[in-house]
Amino acid sequence: MDSDDPRIPLLGHPRGNRLRRAAGKLCSLESWKRRLPITIWLPNYSLECLFRDAIAGITVGLTSIPQGIAYAMVAGLPPQVGLYSSIFPGFVYVFLGSCKDVTVGPTAILAALLAKYVAYSQDFAYLASFLSGCIILLLGVLQLGFLLDFISKPVISGFTTAAALQISASQLKSLFCIAGSSGGTFIHSLVNFFKNIKTAQLWDSVLGASSIVFLLLLKRLTLGNSLEKVCQYVVRARNALLVFAASILAYLLHRHGSTPFALTGKIEGGLPHFGLPPFSTVVNNQTLGFMDMVAVFGPEGLVIPLVAILESIAIAKAFGIIDSIIVGPYFIERLLMGGNYLVMLQGVIQHFVDDIHTPSVTE
C-alpha cells in the first residue's frame, strides 16, 4: 500500500512521528523554561542583586515619569497613557523578559510614529499596540528572527536620525511654549516655530534651556577617586534629580500665587479599564470599521512592530559587547517570544472607566 494512503493512521506515518517529536519538544520542561526566563535566573538570584536592582528600579522609575508624560505628548495622547505604558510592561517583563538591558515601555521613535494616526483618533494607538504585539509574537512563534539580520545598519541609522530630527523639531513648541501647532512633519514644525517665535514665553524658555544644560553638565561630571561611586550614582540619577528639583520649584512658586511656567496640569488617577482594543472608531462623524482602520495604517503601519523589535535588539547588541552576550537568531527568538508579549498588553489597556474618561483628540 502506498505510504501516502490517507487511510494509514497519522501517528503511524513518518510525518506523524515528526509531528509527535515536534509537539513533545514544544511541551518539554526545557521549552517552557525558555518561554519563562524567570525560572532560569530566579534560583540564583542574590540579595546583592536585589539591592542593585532596587537602586536601578527607583532611578529608572523616577525617570520614567517625565519620559512617559513626554512621550504621550509626542504621540498626542493624554499624559496618563504614557504613565500606564511605562509602568505595566515592567511587571510583565519580570516573568517573560530574556535580556536585562532591554528598555521596555514607550520610546520616542514609537511615539513619533503613532502621532500620525492619533491625529485621527487615539483608538488607533491602542489598536496599533495590540496588532504590533500580535505580529511580534507571530515572528517569535515561527522563529523568524533571522530575517532581521538582513536589515542593514545604514537603514537603521538613517531611520533613527530622521526620527530624532522629527522629535526634536516637534518639541520646540513645548520647549519655548510657542502658540500654534507642533506640526505633523519636520518642515511643518520648523515653519510653525519661526512663524510664532514672537509668542515664546521667557521663563519657559529659560527653564527648558537650563534643564538641557543641567543634564549635559551632569553627564560629564567627574570627581576624585574617593567620590567616584557617589559621582556615578549622581550621573545615573540626573534625570530624576532634574524632575524633582523642577517640580519643587514649580510647586513653591504656585503656592505663592505665581505660575511663570506652563504646567502639565491635573493628571487623572486610578487604573485603566482592561479589555480588547477598539476595532472601530469615529473620525469626523464617520464610523470606521476594523478594515478601514487597517487601511489607514497601510503598509507604513508595519514599521511600528519592526521599530519596536529593532530598538530592543539594538540595545541588546550594544550591551552584549560589554556583557559578552551573543545576540544571534536564537537569542532574538527568545526576545520576540518573551519581552514583546508586553507590546500586546499595552494594546489591551484601552479606554478608562467612565468617571475618569479622557476625551479623544477628535472630540
Automatic annotation (TrEMBL):
GO cellular component terms, semicolon-separated: membrane
Protein name per UniProt: (apollo) hypothetical protein
Species of provenance: Parnassius apollo (Apollo butterfly)
Domain of life: Eukaryota
A Pfam family annotated for this UniProt entry: Sulfate_transp
InterPro entries: SLC26A/SulP_dom, SLC26A/SulP_fam
Subcellular locations according to the entry: Membrane
Segments passing through the bilayer: 102-120, 126-151, 200-218, 230-253
The keyword Transmembrane helix belongs to this UniProt entry's keyword annotation: yes
Residue intervals of the SLC26A/SulP transporter domain: 50-322
Topological category with respect to the lipid bilayer: Multi-pass membrane protein
Gene Ontology terms: biological process: transmembrane transport
Keywords assigned by UniProt, alphabetized: Membrane, Transmembrane, Transmembrane helix
Transmembrane helix is among the record's keywords: yes
